[in-house]
Amino acid sequence: MAGGLAVVANEDGQYNGKLTSFVILACMMAAMGGVIFGYDIGISGGVTSMEPFLKKFFHDVYTKMKEDKEVSNYCKFDSQLLTSFTSSLYVAGLFATFIASSVTRTFGRKASILLGGANFLAGAALGGAAFNIYMLIFGRVLLGVGVGFANQAVPLYLSEMAPSKYRGGINNSFQLSVGIGVLIANLINYGTEKVKGGWGWRVSLAMAAVPAFILTLGALFLPETPNSLIQRTNDREKVKRMLQRIRGTDDVQAELDDLIVASETSKTIKHPFKNILQRKYRPQFVMSVAIPFFQQVTGINVIAFYAPILFRTIGLGESAALLSAVVTGAVGIATTAMSMLIVDKVGRRGLLIFGGIQMFVTQMIVGGLMGAKLGDHGGVSKAWAFVILVLICIYVAGFGLSWGPLGWLIPSEIFPLEIRSAGQSITVAVNFLFTFLVGQTFLAMLCHFKYGIFFFFGGWVAIMTAFVYWFLPETKNLPIEKMDKVWREHWFWKKIVGENVELIIKEEAT
């Protein structure tokens, strides 16, 4: 068997096994779904600040930026058509993720990952070849379908393949991959902006095909998760062999027994989207909505989508703005990698609370500085622009350490098997819905709220940090099929699910 870090059985219910090289390689390939998501986030923000791209597709914005000396700094990029280009992907992804739920449940996690890569590949080709706004936005829609399938299946895949002791770190590789995708996109934008002839944006959009091709090809060779196999087949020996292969040990009976129990319960559920509304699943349902909502109202996509535009707002040139976006992307990757290393030791709640405080403080300071130093016209000095850049990097570091990776990790590990696919679809749909709303409204909000936009998002960060403190239990190191115990022991949620304890025990016994 492949070697790895030992995971021994203990009194907390850990299963026997190792973190095998087989699992690491499979998860690295699956996490390419995060790269395509991150690449799109970074590339769209960059090309919308490129003058040749604006001149071709969004001429009104280009004219306002170049010729209108009366318009406010905060309103130069305010265009519903421009924001529709960015946010159309998330509308498509929102609807695609519900289709992906059925595919993931019926045909497996691997099938959804494959479909995600193929659709993203088609969207990248169409975007790079676009000669009018209709082709451009239709390409975005195909990208959205790809991201909808990938984001629905990849976090589940990672959580189900990982040993429980290392689940946090392995699942966080999805957000790390998102950060890598953003950084690669920002570097490409920085290079293509310098292409003479003004066609560099085509290279930026078309290069999305590279990670999409790797994901599509790699998905053909991915093994299916034992959780999905037991859900879709009665061949327990096949499931046992897969468990033995990915855990690196023959002693997998305890984990197999739990999977069989979870599978039997799963097969009695015919309408998972209806069942998830039951009282016994109330905590998981609340988290499937609250966590992705809070992740988006941190304001991170203000930075991710529009970092170059934001840096141009404070007076940086086109090239300097794109380079600044590269810097923030690198900070995000570094702190997400740090989160991977410590999340299974420190725990989920501690990181979320610490990161929330860090984001809140920096947003308040950035809002105050922009209010004091940036008027409606002109810019800020280079020194103050550098200070704002540093503060935004600290903010991005707080997100990369906490809400970035954990916003995907926690929902993927808290659902019982019978509603897991449906729960993940709700998580992705809520994420995309509010990504769309933030993306569609941000430029208008920037125009009307001006520097107050940072106070707006900072207020939400304060609320979500308090929510985590009071209502989110710690889930580190607990096997994914035994996660229901954290709700029965939590001071608040036990009042909701407590009366179902006897029923749950009876279901487990049968």
From TrEMBL:
Pfam families: Sugar_tr (PF00083)
Primary localisation category: membrane
Protein's membrane topology: Multi-pass membrane protein
Localization in the cell: Membrane
Cellular component aspect of the GO annotation: membrane
Molecular functions (GO terms): monosaccharide transmembrane transporter activity; symporter activity
Keywords recorded for this protein, A-Z: Membrane, Sugar transport, Symport, Transmembrane, Transmembrane helix, Transport
Signal peptide range in chain numbering: none
Keyword Iron appears in the UniProt entry: no
Domain of life, per lineage: Eukaryota
Entry similarity comment: Belongs to the major facilitator superfamily. Sugar transporter (TC 2.A.1.1) family. Belongs to the major facilitator superfamily. Phosphate:H(+) symporter (TC 2.A.1.9) family.
Protein name listed in UniProt: Hexose carrier protein HEX6-like isoform X1
